[in-house]
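Retro notes (design track)

What went well: tokenization of the new backbones is finally stable.
What didn't: we kept losing track of which sequence belonged to which structure.
Fix going forward: every design gets posted as structure first, then sequence, in one message. First example under the new rule, 614 residues:
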């Protein structure tokens, strides 16, 4: 598939047509003048890396620009025209899939030897760069130095130039694994290595040499030697493969007539060796990928048409489980946290030897592969702190990140899915004309991020030695995690770092995860405000509980909208709440709202000691 001839052969097989041309004949009837071979002047010591090598001397060539038709051909597929000799080599590679290379014969010192490179041997390639070679690299050399990296690229010193008069044309077969390793190690990909590392057709080596010789004679006026110097032996054809027609039908799922199977495989160049329920097929040299019967079946499907094979419906309806709902909710969490400005990160579940905060009790591995992976993380925050350090070193002014992943709780190593959040820096990356004063991220930003994913979120004072402002995180009455400001001793970040970690499984695996529909309210709401002065130690949670418990049937929502502490005396603060009342079945009257509002005002006086402001 890496040559025009190969593509034509493939298209002919798929369209049930015959390909006509000089290269369609067997090798001994290629349509090219038969040339005798000898083994003079070429030697192979690296027989594994290069099983076969051929070289043909062509004298009195005239190196110049290529004719227009040749330049147009190679430039149409993205190859730059160099001169007629190099362009012919590239043209034959594109036409037949076999790379060739031309050396300036007058610059070679003695015969050609294909060997392994010496340790730290230097080689100046055609791209103008000098490469340091190793004994793993196969090179084409003369008696003094390497003149080419076998199957990859030729050398600058023996390259064809306008002053070249005589050339030596190389055509060889190289081991694909060797070429792949050399091209990767040297970071030197080429059109030739791309083909050699995928395996070229051995039968095309000498045919490509003959084709290039013919074009050089026609275009450059060269006089080819009567003999081709060869060394080594071409790889044999792939082994025969047996195919059972019954297995072919069973694997594909429908019955295909044996005659149709035979026609398809014959079209791809295979030759049937025996006629029976299980036929033996001779594989052509250019299809070394066909090694098993299922490979032949794949060719049958490709040509027959997968669209002609009816599908089998094996699906069954499966009701959604708690795990399905949990997966959907976790995806929704990611969307919500990203929507409020947090970036998702993925960190390793294994900790480095250098310990971060929260990792003192981590479970160590018996046989760690490296010092960077020695223990199982007991906390998501371990990885988030590493991300913070790397971003600060890179010059970041703001880090707001989260991760949902597995942790391993010591000492048993129980797996739990946790959500971790880390905030550091300013709310925005820089001040702007609307907000010249930039504020830092704080505990309320952390709480706002958690409110996106935690229903009925509550913060209560907690105890955690690594946090300066520790809080316990509750969902309703259930404690699900912790958070707060990280102690200065646990981070090198300039400025406060706020973190939170919650046990995600406690929220994701609940039964009541399905979203419930609620229709748009038909009747208007009524709002009333309550302004009060309370002791400074009175918490918002305590005031909210006094308003909502016992629950007033008409009360829909409560919102804190004002807070100030100036000019009202020491140890006191002023709060203002907006209460919304609504009935879903009718419009409320003023008297009904006033009665419900009065009950709440009385509870605030009694339970909180609030001084209500009129």
């Amino acid at each position: 598939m890496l040559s025009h001839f190969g593509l034509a052969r493939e298209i002919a097989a798929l369209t049930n047509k015959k390909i006509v041309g000089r290269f369609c004949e067997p090798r001994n009837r290629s349509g090219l003048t038969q040339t005798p071979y000898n083994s003079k002047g070429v030697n192979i010591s690296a027989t594994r890396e290069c099983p076969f090598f051929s070289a043909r001397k062509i004298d009195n060539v005239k190196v110049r620009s290529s004719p227009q038709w040749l330049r147009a051909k190679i430039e149409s597929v993205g190859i730059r025209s160099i001169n007629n000799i190099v362009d012919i080599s590239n043209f034959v590679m594109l036409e037949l899939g076999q790379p060739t290379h031309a050396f300036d014969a007058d610059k070679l010192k003695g015969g050609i030897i294909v060997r392994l490179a010496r340790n730290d041997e230097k080689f100046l390639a055609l791209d103008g760069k000098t490469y340091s070679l190793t004994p793993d690299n196969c090179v084409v050399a003369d008696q003094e130095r390497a003149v080419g990296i076998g199957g990859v690229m030729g050398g600058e010193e023996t390259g064809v130039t306008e002053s070249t008069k005589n050339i030596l044309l190389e055509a060889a077969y190289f081991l694909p694994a060797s070429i792949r390793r050399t091209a990767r190690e040297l970071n030197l990909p080429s059109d030739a290595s791309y083909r050699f590392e995928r395996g070229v057709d051995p039968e095309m080596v000498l045919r490509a040499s003959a084709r290039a010789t013919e074009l050089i004679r026609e275009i450059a006026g060269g006089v080819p030697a009567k003999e081709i110097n060869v060394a080594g032996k071409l790889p044999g054809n792939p082994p025969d493969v047996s195919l059972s027609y019954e297995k072919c039908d069973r694997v594909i799922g429908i019955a295909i007539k044996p005659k149709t199977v035979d026609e398809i495989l014959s079209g791809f160049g295979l030759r049937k060796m025996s006629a029976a329920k299980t036929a033996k097929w001779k594989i052509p040299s250019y299809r070394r990928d066909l090694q098993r019967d299922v490979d032949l079946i794949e060719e049958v499907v490709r040509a027959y048409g997968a669209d002609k094979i009816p599908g089998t419906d094996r699906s069954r309806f499966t009701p959604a489980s708690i795990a399905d709902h949990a997966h959907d909710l976790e995806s929704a969490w990611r969307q919500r946290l990203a929507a409020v400005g947090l970036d998702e990160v993925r960190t390793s579940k294994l900790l480095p030897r250098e310990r971060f905060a929260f990792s003192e009790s981590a479970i160590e591995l018996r046989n760690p592969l490296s010092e960077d992976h020695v223990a199982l993380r007991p906390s998501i925050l371990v990885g988030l702190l590493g991300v913070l350090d790397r971003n600060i070193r890179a010059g970041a002014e703001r880090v707001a990140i989260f991760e949902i992943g597995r942790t391993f709780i010591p000492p048993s190593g129980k797996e739990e899915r946790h959500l971790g959040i880390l905030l550091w820096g300013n709310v925005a990356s820089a001040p702007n004309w609307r907000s010249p004063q930039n504020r830092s991220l704080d505990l309320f930003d952390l709480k706002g991020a958690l409110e996106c994913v935690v229903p009925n979120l509550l913060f209560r004072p907690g105890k955690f030695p690594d946090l300066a402002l520790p809080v316990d995180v509750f969902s309703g009455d259930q404690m699900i995690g912790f958070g707060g400001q990280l102690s200065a001793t646990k981070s090198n970040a300039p400025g406060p770092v706020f973190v939170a970690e919650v046990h995600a499984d406690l929220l994701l695996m609940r039964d009541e995860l399905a979203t419930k529909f609620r229709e748009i309210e038909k009747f208007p709401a009524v709002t009333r405000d309550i302004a009060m002065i309370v002791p400074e130690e009175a918490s918002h949670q305590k005031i909210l509980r006094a308003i909502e418990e016992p629950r007033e049937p008409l009360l829909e929502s409560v919102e804190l909208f004002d807070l100030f502490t100036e000019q009202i005396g020491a140890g006191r603060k002023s709060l203002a709440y907006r209460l919304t009342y609504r009935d879903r079945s009718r419009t409320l009257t003023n008297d009904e709202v006033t009665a419900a509002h009065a009950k709440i005002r009385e509870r605030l006086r009694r339970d909180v000691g609030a001084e209500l402001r009129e």
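Added context from the reviewer: The two ends are 87 Å apart (CA to CA).
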